[in-house]
Amino acid sequence: MKHILKDIEAAKANGTPLLAVLIDPDKFKLEHLELFVTKAHQTIITHFFVGGSTVEAQVTQKLVNALKRKTSLPIVLFPGDVTQISDQADAILFLSLLSGRNPDYLISKHIQSVSLLEKTRLEVIPTGYLLIESGAETAVQRVTKTTPISSELLVAQTAKAGEYLGMKLIYLEAGSGANYPVSTSIISLTKSKLGIPIIVGGGIRSKKQLEKAYKAGADLVVIGTAFEKDLDFFDEITH
Ligand code: 1GP
């Protein structure tokens, strides 16, 4: 059995940067999986994240089953909804949208998911999820009907409150396909306050932006769109 959280904590302690490729089951074509995974294995990618804001029922499960047969890297669910739970994955980010004030995404969907999660052996990782202003309306914003936050101090304090509440990870999200990623000053101020690992995602499209995020304090970076749009991006981040 894999220990996803422990491994992320250990990587943080050792200063080893982690990189997840995000696959959105709604946009991904299963026939591309073989090549996609082969390419991913040649890079510094350490995790597969699977999830999206709007995914039809059973699509996630199909994708995770297929992915599981092709990789031994950890598969982590990053669900936009209760329908995206698959017992074939290794772990699930149990996301609470701390930047918003929509009770559905703070606690209601979590309660709905309990009867499903009880039937799986997924490692459930309590994760404070913060949507950060990134220039344009993103799918997360639309679906959750919440407003992103932009004040650096508010982001850092919200993240710290999440840590005080017992969350094990903080995810700073600019939104998939964001115009620009979470700023390095937000990452570094948040980092200075937290003892738990920080995930950063949204709008990262180049190796330079990736390195900047690590330098500012991201422990794990998530990239989806850049890989989705251009498989050659894998070649930029080979070992
Ligand atoms: C979205 O943070 C992820 O939740 C990835 O975003 O698709 O912009 O890489 P991108």
UniProtKB/TrEMBL annotation:
Keywords: Lipid biosynthesis, Lipid metabolism, Magnesium, Metal-binding, Phospholipid biosynthesis, Phospholipid metabolism, Transferase. InterPro entries: GGGP/HepGP_synthase_I (IPR039074), GGGP/HepGP_synthase_sf (IPR038597), GGGP_HepGP_synthase (IPR008205), GGGP_synth (IPR010946). Its EC number is 2.5.1.41. It catalyses: sn-glycerol 1-phosphate + (2E,6E,10E)-geranylgeranyl diphosphate = sn-3-O-(geranylgeranyl)glycerol 1-phosphate + diphosphate. Signal peptide: none annotated. GO terms for biological process: glycerophospholipid biosynthetic process. GO terms for molecular function: heptaprenylglyceryl phosphate synthase activity; magnesium ion binding; phosphoglycerol geranylgeranyltransferase activity. Sn-glycerol 1-phosphate binds at Y171, L172, E173, A174, G175, S176, G177, G202, G203, G224, T225. Pfam families: PcrB. Its cofactor is Mg(2+). GO terms for cellular component: cytoplasm. Mg(2+) binds at D24, S53. NCBIfam families: GGGP, GGGP-family, PRK04169.1-2. Prenyltransferase that catalyzes the transfer of the geranylgeranyl moiety of geranylgeranyl diphosphate (GGPP) to the C3 hydroxyl of sn-glycerol-1-phosphate (G1P). HAMAP family: GGGP_HepGP_synthase (MF_00112). Belongs to the GGGP/HepGP synthase family. Group II subfamily. This is Geranylgeranylglyceryl phosphate synthase.
